Amino acid sequence: xxxxxxxxxxxxxxxxxxxxxxxxxxxxxxxxxxxxxxxxxxxxxxxxxxxxxxxxxxxxxxxxxxxxxxxxxxxxxxxxxxxxxxxxxxxxxxxxxxxxxxxxxxxxxxxxxxxxxxxxxxxxxxxxxxxxxxxxxxxxxxxxxxxxxxxxxxxxxxxxxxxxxxxxxxxxxxxxxxxxxxxxxxxxxxxxxxxxx
Length: 197
Prior knowledge:
Blueprint: H1 9-14, E1 19-23, H2 52-64, H3 66-72, H4 77-90, E2 94-95, E3 102-103, E4 105-108, H5 124-145, E5 149-152, E6 165-177, E7 181-190
Parallel strand pairs: 1-4, 1-5, 2-3
Antiparallel strand pairs: 6-7
């Protein structure tokens, strides 16, 4: 299944501060060998025999229960991967998990489709093919979600794939030191509806 978002949509909609996090696309590890529906058990009942409304309901339930499901199974590296975002979210009294005032959702900028191999190992043609639909889908999702804050963790060149109107230019505010220095940048964007974040 495609993964439009990870996290509790209803809790996000009730959240006083609406935050989404962004990466490139889901990993194939979201569908582990031997238990492909382990992280999305509600999606196991998905069928083309159902009505559009029924299929949509199943997918929203499956995506919304993701963090409940990974918390109860051996989530492996993906607990730590989302944990990097969770460390930043904590500064906003937010988390993907229930229990804090603000519940965040995770999204993917380039495609909602998990790939094998990872994005960087796909051919340019494969990336372009996935982005043709994936980019517009993400932009429509963000327009619907109307976040207050968007935390993006991608290589700088992928920020060009964010097509919302820039109302305040990107500016570096800090750097993360490691093998290389990774800049932390901020900007202000405006949705077609006029909502800014």
